[in-house]
Fold this protein.
Amino acid sequence: AECTNDTWKKVMERGKIVVGVKADYKPWGFRNDSGELVGMEIDMARDVADTMGVELELVPVQSSNRMQFLEQGKIDLMIATMSDRNDRREIVGIVGPNYYTSGTNVMAPKALALKEWEDLRGKPVCGKQGAFYNKIVEERYGAEIVAFTGNAEAKQALRDKKCIAWVYDDSSIMSDLSSGQYEEFEMPLASEDDNPWGLAVPKAEEQCVFGQFMSGMQYNWHRDGTLIELEKKWGIQPTAYLEKQAERFKDWLAE
Amino acid sequence: MGGVMEDFFRQLAEDAPRWNFIWMYDERQQGKILSGIWMTIKLAVACVALSVVIGIVGAWLQGARAAPVRLLVAGYIQFFRNTPPFVQLLFFYFALGQFTPTYSPDGWLQQPIISNVGWAIISLSFFAGAFNVEIFRAGIEAVPQSTQEASESLGFSRLQSYRYVVLPLAFRVCLPALNNNLVNLVKTTTQAFAIAVPELLYQSVSIWNDYPSAQNPTMVLLFVVYILLVAVLVFGMHRWERAMRIPGYGT
Amino acid sequence: MLVVRWVAGIPPWVPVMLFVAALAWPAIAAAQVRYSYGDATEALWRWIPFLVTSGFFFNVLISVLSMAIGTVLGAALGLAQISLYRPVRQAAWFITQLFRNSPWLVLLFIVLLAFPFEVTLFGTVIPIPDWTKAVFGLSLPVMANISEIVRGAVQSVPTAQWEASESLAFSRRQTLWQIILPQCYKRMIPPWMNWYAILTMATPLCSLLGVEELITLTRQAMESENNHPELLVPFYTFALLLFFAYCYPIARLTIALERRFAVKL
Amino acid sequence: MISLKDVHKSFGDLEVLKGITFDVMKGEVICIIGPSGSGKSTLIRCINALNDIQRGSITVEGQEVHDPNLDKLELRKKVGMVFQQYNLFPHKTALENVMMAPLLVLKQAKADVEQRARRLMKKVRLEGKENFYPGELSGGQQQRVAIARSLAMNPDVMLFDEVTAALDPETVKEVLVTIKELAAEGMTCILVTHEMGFAREVADHIYFTDRGVIVEHGPPATFFTEASDPRTQEFLSQIL
Amino acid sequence: MISLKDVHKSFGDLEVLKGITFDVMKGEVICIIGPSGSGKSTLIRCINALNDIQRGSITVEGQEVHDPNLDKLELRKKVGMVFQQYNLFPHKTALENVMMAPLLVLKQAKADVEQRARRLMKKVRLEGKENFYPGELSGGQQQRVAIARSLAMNPDVMLFDEVTAALDPETVKEVLVTIKELAAEGMTCILVTHEMGFAREVADHIYFTDRGVIVEHGPPATFFTEASDPRTQEFLSQIL
Ligand SMILES: Nc1ncnc2c1ncn2[C@@H]1O[C@H](COP(=O)(O)OP(=O)(O)OP(=O)(O)O)[C@@H](O)[C@H]1O
Ligand SMILES: Nc1ncnc2c1ncn2[C@@H]1O[C@H](COP(=O)(O)OP(=O)(O)OP(=O)(O)O)[C@@H](O)[C@H]1O
Ligand SMILES: [Mg+2]
Ligand SMILES: [Mg+2]
């Protein structure tokens, strides 16, 4: 199809880009106590706006509606902790190198000394409603998922010993563990399903100016270490992935 | 026979991608739905029974001579009537749940004395119970003073007049209101979803999260099941109301 | 409505005292963990302005709009229920029962998930934001219950009033609008307000679907405060308090009005 | 002016009127008496087309009441009815109660209607009570407002259904005085009453109904003293 | 047997009884008449201790009714009361209504009580209606069940408060006949009634009350014809 570059033009014309971000996924996207959205992904969004020379408007999205918002034109860009999965690529334009990866892991009490996923079989495991790996953990390892509507509830249930583990993104679990609040807990298993995260533009823009631009933004973030810096800034456990990518794309422009 | 049905729905899922009746052929999902329905029924029955008990006890306490008791009941009713049952559930389960004793069958995993199902039953029963107290009290008030006077002038004691005259009449008066409240209660059990009680709504949502194509049929099923449950309750209560009817009394 | 009547009997300080006790209690019950209840309460104080202005404001907005829509639709449906035309009556009855007897949460799920994110009307695309869908989803059960209130109120007017107007040669329409309905308004106001309170208390359900309101933002706030379990008591207590502060006066007003009208009629 | 011929009326299986025939002349006052459940109210409601009939005919000024093509509005402008329970409109003042029908139904000018309504209020001795709501009036006063309300339509005939049965002995008198004046002015009246004394005083003709038929009738002078039917005699003997 | 001395009774600021004094002999039947609100019901309820009094004394068989140490049960075994609205227990059959008090209060044997109750039902001419619920009986029948219910306690005195006011003229008779029989059998009776004819027939003595005092009294022979008080005359003149 031909590029109309509608979104790009629209953003430039009105001098404002609308970005869909998470509001309940610390430290990627959350609210500070004056209600403003902050977080690593918000910083990324701001960098995009600054580079384009436009203003930034943030719209909080849910896992359940983020893709529709983009399709519908309610947001121009989505940076919302979305796993890059094939079925999603068919609906929205996921471009460029992935800006992060995470895996699925569990937070479990040290006392239980879990060793492998199989140890979860037949046991209650807390989770969050709507997470795609709930089903995987349930069907592959036979855990009984007790899914709550929010993470606060799920973690509370774990602390109240209502389940033996909390299944979630390993990066999130890592940052919780490093906060010092969860000393009796550990992340004992090997992460499953390495999930690259992708930001997305409307499907029509994927191969056009906006898509190319966002792809470039990500290469740059990797190359100049922005992502690693941000990772530090927001207290996210350093990941091997980002270092590898930084190394890899160092000479991208030269190429 | 079963095979034919399964094939039909499997085929339908392929032909009409938004109408994947997955629980018609996938045993695991079918199990979820059935256990969800069963849990909903258990929840409803337990809550109905407990809330009626709370209602009767509350109405009785309200007539207590001691002012503090009356105030306590009053506070209870106000609290539960004027706050959302949904937040009550969260509050009960997470806030109060932290302070309940637990027992530990294995090393770490501690079973709380009150499970999430237990908290759902407690919370929802107290919610509906607050309304039941009012309903029973109104029923007692609806018995004409003159009927009590008549029994008094026949020499009945206060207790006798309550036991034999006032309560039997009051109960019949409040049946319709009670009926209404209980229907409401059954509808409210869906909110136990918030604390991960695996009732029908919870199971349905988890099915359509895993299989977006099953969303429409599952919603239809939800709707139908709840309407049926309510219908059964309404039917039962009407039968009971009729059985309790006094010839020539009321209308 | 008997329910409501009794509320007036309670002095307002009773529930207030209970709440003070409820608020103070966690502080008493808490042993000092690393993250103490003091910290949690302090966190709550920081969040309160935001929770109220951006969260509870939406609960109120959603409830007001749903009530407005539900009332208009419900009144029409209620009148349809007493139509002389049988199919209209039956259809109205069916719709009323359907929405009256299905759980609010199920209706919300259906409206939020099964309805489109936008509609195309005469070529223009109109986006439907989540919260407007919530408004619509909540107005359905309100509509059904208002419909019942209208029908009940009309039928509670003694048939003698119909006969009296009939024998004075009033038409059916005149009888309904000039004689029957004016007698109904007053008795409809208290149950109507009661339903408004019930509706307001149903708005947190929207949080399950990601609509931004008090409970959604409460969750987000707790996320931002690192999900310490100690946050749960103060934050949820605050939410309860806020709803109580809003709904309790409505309940009292309802009874006050009910009393006033009771004298007049 | 009013003529009933072999009127039959059933509620489901229950035959309440079993062939009632009588005529009322213009300006005549007739009283219908009889035991409870004998069909008096039903009879009077049939004349006003509030109930339909199964057989027979009822004509008012030569017009068949139960003709399906009849304009009921026209009939009801001619026939006024006063109920046992008054049935005033509780949300309107006494004066508004009286004015409503002429305004809404006859679409008469407001000033005229009001003037006439005030005259009627005076006639039923209720000057000064114009702006009271029904709930603020005593039973007797309410009943007189109800009479004024019917009169406001300028009916040719007035039907009264046990208009004093809900009143206490002392206030009965007030209402009866008003009706007596009406009768004296030449209004055609059909009254159902339990007040024998009143019937005797005011009626031109008395009908005694029992189980759906007219058992006995006659002018008051002879009715009370010369009743021949045993049922009537028994009924009259019960009056203390 | 019953003796009232200077009985005063107020509801809040409203003084309803302003010094009532009279005596009733054993086997005597007295009627109290008077306009609405004059305190007749209140008076009769005071005799039964359903209301307390502020001043004066009421004795029944020499026993002070308003003595705080009085065993109300004992009083109520002696004094039966029948209400205007019957106040039957709607969830019990007629027979059960009659049997309840002897069973529960006097703890008598069921067989005896039932036998006696059936006899009483017969006495009030209600054989065959034993298993009907109050809602299935006519007003007059209900009222007679109420009388039987009071009689089941074998009282020495019966109080009747406008027992026929809620009934239609014909059924009034049934009830009055029952009361008349009771009176003839020598039961001490105090009746509040609006039925002058009945009062005249049955009463040994008639009291006329107005605004809380006894304005006039006398035996029926003279009471109706020789009333001296203008208020009484006015009241009597209204009776048609
Ligand atoms: N709408 C109705 N449906 C069925 N039966 C009715 C209806 N209205 C009246 N009846 C019956 O018709 C009979 C006559 O009733 P009606 O009211 O005419 O009696 P009445 O002579 O006016 O008695 P009363 O003196 O008690 O007013 C009664 O047996 C009554 O039960
Ligand atoms: N419980 C009460 N509280 C306050 N006032 C009362 C109460 N009971 C009766 N009264 C008042 O006492 C007065 C006398 O009432 P009572 O019922 O004795 O009159 P009555 O002579 O029986 O009248 P009626 O013939 O209408 O039955 C009335 O003015 C009434 O309003
Ligand atoms: Mg009648
Ligand atoms: Mg009285």
